[in-house]
Amino acid sequence: MRVLVLGSGGREHALLRALSNDPIVTALFCAPGNAGTADLAENHVLDPTDPVAVVELAGRLRPNLVVIGPEAPLIAGVGDALRQAGIPCFGPDARAARIEGSKAFAKEIMSAAGVPTAAARVCENGSEVEEALDAFGAPYVVKDDGLAAGKGVVVTSDRDEAADHANGSARVVIEEYLDGPEVSLFALSDGVHAVPLLPAQDFKRAYDQDKGPNTGGMGAYTPLPWAPEGLVDEAMATVVQPAIDELRRRETPYVGVLYAGLALTSKGIKVIEFNARFGDPETQVVLDRLVTPLAGLLQSCAIGGLDPDLELEWRPGAAVTVVIAAENYPAKPVKGDVIEGLDEANAVPGAYVLHAGTKRDHEGRLLSAGGRVLTVVGTGDDLAAARATAYEAVGKIKMRGMHFRTDIAAKATNIPS
Asked: Closest Cα partner for 286 from 15, 36, 30, 6?
C-alpha cells in the first residue's frame, strides 16, 4: 500500500512512524512534512490546504490512501476533492469537519443527537456577550467559533479577560464551566460504525500546574489509571456513535477520526469539544501503544467496511510524551535556533523523539521552525517508568530558549493503578 500523509507536525511524524511498521505499506509520502518525517517518507513541498495542489500530487504519487493530519485542509475541502478524484481519503469532508471548524455547529449536532455537553450561548455582539457571562458566571469559558489551532479558548475567573477575548472575535460560544478531569478519546469511523482507541490525557496550558495561556498541547500520557471502569464504552454509546449517526442522518457521513474532548464531571460524562482529526500530542502516545496494523484500519474507514466489533490490540505498559517548545511559544515563537542532542535522546532506552516544527538548513543543521518543535516519547512498564524515561531523554536535548512542562503525568503517577 502506498500512503500519503498531509501535514508537518508531531502528529504526522507519529502517524508515519506507525504506518512504517505496517507490513502492507510499501511506500510513504508526506506533504509538506518536516526534518523528521523525511527520515520515514518522501517529503513534498506544497500547501496542504490547496485542494487542487493535493489532488495533483496524489495523481503523480498514486497513493492507495491519503491521510489528512491537520484540521485546516479538512475545512478547506481537501477530503472532498480527493474523493471526487476517486482517491481513498481518511478524513471527513468539509461539511462534516465543521464539527471542529464551528463550535456553534458542534453544539447544534450535540443538541440534535442528545449528546451531553455544557450549556452554551452563541454570541455575535457585546450585549449578547454580557448576557451570557452573567448567565453562566465564573469560571468563564469563551471559545472562538472558528479554527484557532487549539488556542482560541479562554477559561478564566477574570470577567474583563473573558469579555475582551469574546469581543475580539466576530462570533464566540460562551458556555458553562465543566468540572472534573479531562479525557481525550479518538474513534475511527467509516461513516456508519466507529471503533475507539485508547483514552489519553493532554496538557493544554503552557506552564506547570496548568498556568499560562492555552497551547496546542504540551504533553500527554496513556493509559489513565484513574479512569472509571467502562468509560470508553459509555463514551462511545452516549457521545461518539450518536454524533456519527446524526451526521449521517444529515447526509454528511463522517469518515475519519472523531476526537471527543470529554470532562468527567460530577454529573457524568460531558463533551468539551469535538475535533475532526487526531489530537496532537495525544496521537504520539496512543499510536505508540497500538499493535494492530494502522494502514488497514485507516483504509477500511476510507473505503467503508470497518468492523464495529473489532477489538484492537494494545501493548502493555505506558507512554508519556513531553513537548519541547520554542522561546515565546505560544505567542510569537522564535524560529531558527539550532537543535542538538537528538542522537543522545534517541539512545535512551524506551525513548524516541518525534519532530514537529523542524527543518534543516543548507549545512544540514537541525533548526526550529515552529512553536512546538519536538515531542519526546518515553515508554515503560508503567506511567512512572515511562515518565522518567521521557524526561531523561528531554534532558539530552539542547536548544536556545527551549521550554517544556515538568509535570506531565506527575499526578497520575501518584495514583495507584
From this structure: 15
Q: What are phi and psi of 267, to 5 degrees?
A: -110, 15
Question: What confidence tier does 149 reach under pLDDT thresholds 50, 70, 90?
Answer: low
The whole-angstrom separation of Cα 272 and Cα 280 is 16
Q: What is the pLDDT, as a whole number, of residue 416?
A: 42
The cell for 377 is 516519547
Cα–Cα distance between 227 and 209 in angstroms, integer?
20
Rg of the chain over all Cα atoms, to the nearest angstrom:
20
Q: Checking DSSP bridges between strand 140-144 and strand 172-175, what pairing results, if any?
A: antiparallel
Angle of helix 126-136 versus helix 159-167 axis, rounded to 10: 140
- Contact criterion met (CB below 8 Å) for 314 and 222: no
Write the CA distances from 46 to 43, 58, 61, 396, integer angstroms.
10, 12, 14, 33
The C-alpha atoms of residue 287 and residue 329 are separated, in whole angstroms, by 26
417: DSSP letter: -
| Local confidence band at 151 (pLDDT 50, 70, 90 cut-offs) | low
Cα(12)–Cα(17) distance, rounded to whole angstroms? Answer: 8
Supply the angle between the helices 241-249 and 94-101 in degrees, to the nearest 10.
130
CA-based end-to-end distance of the chain: 39
- Classify burial at 78, counting beta carbons within 10 Å of its beta carbon; exposed 0-12, middle 13-18, buried 19 or more: buried
Q: Compute the distance between CA of residue 266 and CA of residue 263 in angstroms, rounded to an integer.
A: 9
Judge whether residue 152 has pLDDT over 80. Answer: no
Say how far apart CA 186 and CA 166 lie, in whole Å. Answer: 29
d(CA 20, CA 64): 15
Please state the pTM of the whole predicted model. Answer: 0.94
Helix, strand, coil abundance in the chain, percent, nearest 5? 35, 30, 40
